[in-house]
Design brief:
mainly alpha, Serine Threonine Protein Phosphatase 5, Tetratricopeptide repeat, 3 domains, 12 helices
């Protein structure tokens, strides 16, 4: 047989031809009976060689396995090995948990989710202004319609921009919709006011705002100056202990 033809048949049977070459070769096989016979014969030879090789390999493995000495562990040794494996597994689990507690700090987003809750709304009969629009906004706020609440409140800032109640609720309504820059703007106005009953609450929600923007150090700066009589004292201390340590 032509060596080149032999190589082509071999490449065809071993599937090393390109798709184009394979298509041309199959066209030749269909139109040339002698070539088809050669392909069939060579396929049988390859299959026979593979079968014999596998048989010999299995026989060799069987021979090696039966010749190798078998080490049988005593019942006591098997029990000891099992207990050792269990103890090692438990130790690894305990080490992993210890490392997690020691080194894994909750993220700012995790802390925000854990500590945030909307600021309670005011009774609508105790509005901070005599304008009924404030009460309408408070109704919307308490229903969770924060954008609608702001639509009532924002025009009021043109009349009374320094009103701490108005600024506080605008701030927390923006925080509730994760519009943090606007939230911090209004809460800062309350926090910096010389006399306000919302100072402590403004500081708390500003700190949460900094957690929302992944700035835990700024949250720490705010919270560490809390007063001992702060109504959120326990929450503040707990959050300070959980804030990620500065690098």
């Amino acid at each position: 047989m032509d060596p080149f033809l032999f190589e082509r048949i071999d490449a065809y049977l071993l599937e090393t031809m390109s798709p184009e070459e394979r298509q041309r070769f199959e066209d030749e096989v269909r139109t040339q009976p002698e070539l088809a016979e050669e392909v069939a014969l060579q396929r049988k030879l390859i299959q026979g060689i593979e079968t014999e090789s596998v048989r010999r390999l299995l026989q060799e493995l069987h021979t090696r396995q039966t010749a190798a000495p078998v080490m049988k562990a005593s019942p006591a040794r098997r029990t000891w090995l099992t207990l050792t494996a269990i103890a090692a597994s438990v130790l690894l689990i305990l080490i992993g948990r210890w490392a997690f507690v020691q080194y894994a700090s909750p993220s700012s987003a995790d802390l925000y989710a854990a500590y945030y809750s909307p600021a309670p709304g005011l009774p609508t009969t105790l509005g901070a202004t005599d304008n009924p629009d404030f009460s309408e906004g408070m109704v919307a706020y308490k229903l969770g319609n924060y954008q609608e609440a702001r639509q009532w409140w924002l025009p009021l800032t043109q009349q009374d921009a320094a009103n701490d109640t108005l600024n506080f609720y605008l701030g927390v309504s923006y925080l509730a919709t994760t519009q943090t820059d606007s939230a911090l703007y209004y809460l800062r106005r309350v926090y910096d006011a010389p006399k306000t009953s919302y100072g402590s609450s403004a500081r708390w929600y500003m700190a949460l705002g900094y957690l929302q923007t992944s700035e835990p150090e700024r949250a720490r700066e705010l919270l560490q100056n809390f007063r001992e009589d702060d109504p959120r004292r326990e929450e503040i201390v707990k959050l300070l202990n959980e804030l990620p340590k500065s690098q």
